[in-house]
Recover the amino acids of this structure.
């Protein structure tokens, strides 16, 4: 939402830029939505992508292709041999994929019949097609994986890619998440479960306020975030620039409700502890937590309590917490 590429996004981020804006998309303005703010891809970046032809036309695929290309270029890695291509995979997930296409094609079917349904319809809505098209675009023949786990999708894709490398199934993985969720059906659905901020329609830069007393829901966003992961030995061999190391990964489920977290925070607590166990690291080593932080009145309280329960050592400096 800050810009059309990582470098410009970073420049805006470090000077305190805000990617939240008023909804300007014409197909949304007439809906009289209770929430009229979004963290959307800048329109000057988004609109040219909307002209892409099938099967590349879905925006969630466009976002993934652009971010993956940028990540690979930044990594300096381009597999050349068959062996290198077969040891390089893709793990890119999406929470809702191309849900707006389902609504549009349903209307077409109702009004104009089956013959007007595009043969590209099914490939355009499948979540795994983002990973598939990145693989096709760069001839990456290793593991090809997609997950769809709502807000955790991107983190799960990166964690799964980490495990594929650690287990010896790949040397390099292009991993992350992509979402094109700013559309009529998506916004209507999130509005009806009262998950979105509605108090700050006239001051969008104030709407996203996790853990704040004035919070009233999250700001819906879109875009893609992709990283290139590789084994340490592979990175050393090619003298790669290393930004960070993944040392542990944990997953859990609350088994409580379809949308609400368990009041005791057991899901988040178990997940953080699992990641620490996997990393063989004490909680005191953690200096920063990127939280879920939905900005909902209930969710933030539960997550804050879960963080406090895991990072409870009075002799250790508490980790910094924010959310992206």
């Amino acid at each position: 939402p800050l810009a059309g590429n990582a470098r410009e996004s970073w420049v805006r981020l470090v000077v305190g830029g805000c990617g939240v804006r008023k909804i300007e998309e014409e197909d949304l303005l007439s809906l009289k939505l209770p929430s009229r703010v979004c963290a959307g891809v800048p329109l000057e970046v988004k609109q040219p992508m909307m002209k892409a032809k099938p099967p590349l036309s879905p925006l969630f695929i466009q976002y993934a292709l652009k971010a993956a290309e940028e990540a690979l270029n930044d990594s300096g890695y381009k597999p050349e041999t068959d062996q290198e291509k077969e040891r390089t995979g893709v793990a890119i997930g999406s929470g809702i994929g191309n849900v707006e296409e389902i609504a549009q094609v349903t209307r077409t079917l109702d009004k104009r019949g089956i013959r007007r349904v595009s043969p590209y319809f099914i490939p355009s809505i499948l979540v795994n097609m983002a990973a598939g098209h990145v693989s096709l675009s760069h001839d990456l023949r290793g593991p090809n994986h997609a997950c769809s786990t709502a807000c955790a999708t991107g983190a799960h894709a990166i964690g799964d890619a980490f495990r594929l490398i650690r287990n010896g199934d790949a040397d390099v993985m292009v991993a992350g998440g992509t979402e094109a969720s700013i559309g009529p059906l998506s916004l209507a659905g999130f509005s009806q479960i009262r998950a979105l901020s509605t108090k700050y329609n006239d001051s969008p830069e104030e709407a996203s306020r996790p853990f704040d007393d004035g919070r009233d829901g999250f700001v819906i966003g879109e875009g893609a975030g992709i990283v290139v992961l590789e084994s340490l030995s592979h990175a050393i061999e090619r003298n790669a620039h290393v930004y960070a190391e993944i040392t542990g990964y944990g997953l859990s489920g609350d088994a409580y409700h379809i949308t609400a977290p368990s009041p005791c925070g057991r899901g988040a607590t178990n997940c953080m502890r699992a990641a620490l166990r996997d990393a063989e690291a004490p909680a005191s080593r953690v200096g920063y937590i990127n939280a879920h932080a939905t900005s909902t009145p209930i969710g933030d309280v539960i997550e804050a309590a879960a963080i406090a329960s895991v990072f409870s050592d009075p002799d250790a400096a508490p980790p910094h917490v924010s959310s992206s």
User: Anything to note?
Assistant: The first helix runs from residue 6 to 14.
